Amino acid sequence: MNQTKKVLLVFLPSESGVDGARSLYDEPETGSIRQRFNHSVRTLIKQSQFAIPPLALMILGSIEVPGVEQQLCDMRFEEFPYRNDWDLVGISVQTGMARKAFELADKLRRQGIPVALGGAHVSLFPDSCRSHADLLVHGEADDMWKTVLEDLRAGSLKTDYRADGFPDLSLPRPVSKHMLQRNRYFTTNLIQTGRGCPYNCDFCNVHVLNGRSLRRRAISDIVAEVGRFLQDDRRIFFFVDDSVNADPSYAEELFRRLIPYRISWFGQATTTLGQQPRLLEAFAKSGCRALLVGIESVEPASRNAHRKNQNKAAELAAAIRNIRNAGISLYGSFIYGLDGDTLDTPAAILDFVSQTKLDVPGINILRPTPGTGVFDRLREEGRLLFDPDDPTAFRYTFGQEMLYRPKRIPLDAFVESYSTLTRQLFSPAQSIRRGIGAPSAKTAVLFFNLFYTHLYGLSRNDLKKQIASRFG
Ligand code: SF4
Fold this sequence. Notes:
It contains 17 helices and 14 strands. The protein is α/β, with parallel strands linked by helices. The longest helix is centred in the C-terminal third of the chain and has 30 residues, at about 440-470. The protein is globular and about 65 Å long. About 45% of the residues are buried. The structure holds iron/sulfur cluster (SF4). Iron/sulfur cluster (SF4) binds near residues 199 and 294.
């Protein structure tokens, strides 16, 4: 009789940032009060609001093939379960964490456990992954993973699985949560309504990985999923799409149909929502409590330089006010260090934040992610600070490492101005003020701001150390 094949899907934590707010410069464990405090804050950040399950692996784990059993290992919370009865271990590889993924894959393969690698890094840089895996899954794996599992059962695994196009998301693909340990996460109610983005921002790889046309799931499938998810977890829903309002008429129909479910939800949207009153009303009535909006830059020169033109800077402030007036809190995400930015930009950001009363003003340093247009351009211009031929050198952190030289600002002056800006924006007093003033989700706004006060402190310290050690 054939034995059930055991498959483990693995999600890795990033080196720092929200998965584990720690310094990049490891200090020996002394058990000091400061270390114990930092450890407690790290655990709190992870558990109380940031940790959400890895949706891509939930989707793969929902694929059922008779004779194959799948489990999830979320290494943000648990050690890898070293046993020798795994028939296949699938690791999701993001460029920022690729080195860790390769280390684990190599170790498993030395023990004779077959490894499948997939995820964004494999799709963009398959050659750098090949020597670490028995098989590679290129691109969106929704359809291919079923073939992998069938081949595993039949004993006929191949070295590469590659689809001709993107999966058809309009087909029903119910997502199951059976692999998750509910209490680890802020919520398990993650919903994706579609993939792809018609825009072309050069610092982003969504359009490279998921295509330029929007592929949407059937509204009835999503409504059914919300109803099903509610049965075992009544916490907040998170719509994970990069722009949940990318197709306004689709979004309006979806959220109107969700009104009777009386859920609360967070999501990500473009600020054009503030100019779409009917859609905004549907968002508010369906329980939208907070949205992340990508403002990126208030400098017209930077918006043009990076092709972020879909919502004009002049309209942003009014749109933000409209959204907040509808009772939705806003996390506004800025990028500092874009090509049009100067040392005057922080003052413009501060001004904008105070005018619009953004509830969480997230300041990101430009990240030239390998595989994006901006990475290629900075490489040509000789502005990258790590070896451009080694994409794994560009690790993900919470703004703790400069990866490039800004165009118009010397590196040390940039770090100093970023440090001043984040210090001015984040403090316990600012956090309390923003929490009280938020139109909704006041506790979440308060905690986000408090955690960011801690995380930006970490970021400033590590940047200072990097500049001192590499360029001092
Ligand atoms: S930043 Fe947002 S709008 Fe721009 S390409 Fe990426 S997903 Fe699309």
